[in-house]
Every structure is written in C-alpha cells, then in structure tokens.
Amino acid sequence: MRAKRALLWSAAVAIVVGAAVAVTSCGGGGSTGGGAALKIALLLPESKTARYETQDKPLFEAKVKALCPDCQILYSNANQDATQQQSQAEAALANGAKVLVLDPVDFASAGAIVTKANAAKVPVISYDRLITNADLAYYVSFDNEKVGKLQGQALLDKLTADGNAGKTIVMINGAPTDNNAKLFKAGAHSVLDGKVKIGAEYDTPDWSPDKAQTEMDQAITKLGKDGFVGVYCANDGTAGGAIASMTGAGIDPKTRPTTGQDAELAAIQRILVGEQFMTIYKAIKPEAEATAMLAVALAKGESPPASLTLTTVNNGTKDVNSVILDPVPVTKDNVKATVVADGFWTAKDICTGAYAAACKAAGIQ
Ligand code: BGC
C-alpha cells in the first residue's frame, strides 16, 4: 500500500500499464487566431455522482489556468443525457473550441461527436470513460478492470473471513452506456464467479443512486431479508442507494459488507462507522491534471509534455495513446494511510459530529 501511494503522488501523473510509447505528433488543434483566447471544452456526464462538480471540474480548470492563463474553458455537464451532451459538444465546436475533453454519457453514440469534431480538425480526449470506435487523440483514465477486480477480491476476502464464502450476494453494476461499467463488472465477475452465488444482479441506468435503491428493494423482495450476505456495488453512489434500501427494510447494513468506488466523503464516513465495507480510491488530481496538460498541448499545437508517460489502449479503431492510473482499495484500516494522507479528504472534512468517535478510533484527527 505504501509503495502504491508513493507511486500515486510521486509525479504529477504516471502509473503505467504496459510499455511506454513515444509520441511524436499530437494531431493538431489550430493556432491561437491572432491572440484570441484558446478555447478548451470540458464535457462531463452527470452531477449525481459527487466527483465531477467537486473534483474533476475544479482540478482540470486550475491546471489549465496554470499552464495557459489565456486559455478559456467551455464547461458543460450533460446530466446523464446523451442527446444533451451531443448538443453541448456541437455548441462548443460552434463556439470555437480547439480541443474537446469528453467524458461520454454513452460510449457508443459519443463516436458521432468525435467524427464531427475531427471533421472540424478538433482533437478529442476521452476523459475517464473510453469512447469506442472513434478516432481519439488521447484517453486518460484508471485501470478500470482492476477496479472491478479489487472490489470483487475485497468482498470475497471479507465474506471468507466472516465464514460466508460460497453464499449468496447481490450485484449492482453501473450504467450499461458506460464502458467503464462494463470493465468494472467484468473485473468483479472474474473474481467472484464460482466463489459466491449471485442471487440478483442489475445494471443501473445512468448510475442513479435512486435507481440502485429500487434495485436493492427488488433484490430484498426476491431473496428475503436473510437471503444474502453481501452486496457488490460498482460505486459509492449506488452503494448509498443499496444501504438506504437495506436500512429501510430493517436490515443492519453493518451485517452485509457492501463495496463502492470513488472514495466519496459520504462513503468514507460510512466506512468508518461500518455501514459500508470498502471503496476504491482513484486520485482524481493526477487524472484531471494529465488531461489538462494534454489539452493545452493540443490547443497550442504542441507535442505532449515529456513528463507524461503514455501507454496505448485499443478502442476498436486504433491504439489510443493513453495515461492509465492505478486504483487503490480502501477499508476502515487504511482510510488514514490513503485518502487522508494524500489530502483527498482532511480530518476536518470527515470527522463531523456523528463521525467524530469513529475517526478517533481510526486514528484520524
Ligand atoms: C467513473 C466512476 C463514477 C461513475 C458514475 C464511471 O465512469 O469512473 O468514478 O462513479 O462513472 O459517474
């Protein structure tokens, strides 16, 4: 764990999966147009998950401003609506964006946005979620299959320690329109299949916490209150929904280890008091900053900064030059050594009223 953390923060970015490749050209992006602001569009997918508005957006903006004070960011959030995202991308292109940083609502239909952008000589960076079958300039994300494997393994280890190996669990996956959700699900299944029974499984449209809560209600009706020993949830939002459902049904969530992802503040607090078993910490700062570095280079028509280590990920059209970062599992035992040590959350953020005692017990103050 310590080695991983050191890696995470030892450089601005740079955990590499596979071999590094050299990049000589960056696909253009146009000139400054006689001193006018260089426009970079940031298109994020939704706002029900906390990370986008509280972390991705401000961290990306801060890095772009630091690298390019004259750059202007055209920001939009699609609120889970792929059609709206298409219009937002078109508006950004019409507004003179030199680069699109696109975290797609729908990985398949977003290809049309990339085609349109490229026709206008505007390169596209696929941010966090891969856009398949499209001519991308770059992809920046985490090792998402590993995220699913880490979630599945943590749950399996906990069930085994509790004497519950081989028993029934519920699986609440992410949105079928998100390529990451497919990877998380595949990674989790690769660990859990054959080791536990999957009594009920759902793909959650739009990753909505409220829909996850309804899915968990259905699972409890199907399996009975005592018919499952744990819950795989793909992220902290869906975990929050599943935990609310259990509580509403009179089940103590402390008795059903539940996974998550994003190290959201609410999830870290639930983990400390035992309501959620684990989450996955993805350091958004290096992800947003690597993307900002690439976007500014593209906007200026320059090569990518040498400090970035690139690998490739095939998206069906090409081997896309990519920055791939490393996810870290977090349970009560290492909240302090991960998210607190990295400053992702401070003790002050976490240890409010009801959580003060649990913080103290975990050595966080
Ligand atoms: C991201 C997760 C996020 C989820 C829901 C995924 O693509 O990688 O961090 O929780 O989308 O927005």
Short description:
The protein is of the alpha/beta class and 365 residues long. The chain is 41% helix and 17% strand.
List key phrases describing it:
365 residues, alpha/beta, Rossmann fold, seven-stranded mixed sheet, three-stranded parallel sheet, globular, disordered N terminus, binds beta-D-glucopyranose
Describe the 3D structure.
With about 375 residues, this protein is of the alpha/beta class. It has 2 domains: about 10-140 and about 285-325, Response regulator (Rossmann fold, 3-Layer(aba) Sandwich); about 145-280 and about 330-360, Response regulator (Rossmann fold, 3-Layer(aba) Sandwich). The protein has helices at about 1-10, 50-65, 80-95, 110-120, 145-160, 180-190, 210-225, 235-250, 265-275, 285-300, 335-340, 345-350, 355-360; strands at about 40-45, 70-75, 100, 125, 140, 170-175, 195-205, 230-235, 280, 310-315, 320-325, 330. The strands form 3 sheets. The chain has a 7-stranded mixed β-sheet, sandwiched between helices. It has a 3-stranded parallel β-sheet with strand order 7-6-8, sandwiched between helices. It is globular. Bound molecules: beta-D-glucopyranose (BGC).
Taken as a percent bin, the fraction of beta residues is 15-25%
**At CATH's second level, what is the architecture of the largest domain?**
3-Layer(aba) Sandwich
Number of helices: 13
Rg from C-alpha positions? 21 Å
Please count the beta strands (DSSP E, at least 2 residues each): 12
Assembly type of the shown chains?
A: single chain
- Please, what is the average pLDDT? 91
Major sheet, described briefly?
7 strands, mixed
What best-fitting shape do the alpha-carbon axes yield? globular
- N- to C-terminal separation? 21 Å
